[in-house]
Amino acid sequence: MGPAPNQHAPIALAITGASGAPYWMRLLEVLLAEGHEVHLVASANASTVSMAETGLDLDAAIARAAKGARGTLRIFDRHDFMAPMASGSARLAAMVICPCSTGTLARIAHGTSSDLVTRAADVCLKERRKLIVVPRETPLSLIHLRNMVTLTEAGAVVLPAMPGFYNKPEEIADLVDFVVQRITDQLGLDLQLSERWGQ
Questions:
Q1: Least packed by Cβ within 10 Å: which of 32, 34, 128, 141?
Q2: Could you tell me the domains of the chain?
């Protein structure tokens, strides 16, 4: 396990083409509302999924999530290898890939840095920084499972988008908050977005 996240350094958030736009939108909203600096990058297919699930193109979805933000948002093109997250010498608290497609997961597991998303993830692993991948796929093939094992052995946290039901969710937002709270817990943030077990 790598060092604890530096709470004063930026948090990288990568969006890929897996289903789950409400997860990244809520996570971005929460991080910015808490005053964090977020470095955002999206894969080639993220906009297609955003439109399908929210009716908003990627720019509009980001703008909605960032509305009224206290923190700072910097957006980088997926081909921008001059972005801070592309180098281990840059300060970075942690990286979250939410949602993480199984294709992206496979490329990271095998060290194939084809864009800024996978390069930044590779940097987090080599620098022993916190890398959280949030796959949203079912069922999982043996290839998917083996890639998850490889990432876990390399130091990443594999946090599937699997909401719980003991908090008695009444709407979709409650299910989303359950997963986002688990992500922010891994980032070391003390937030109460969803009812916790036994509390």
A1: 141
A2: 11-186 (3.40.50.1950)
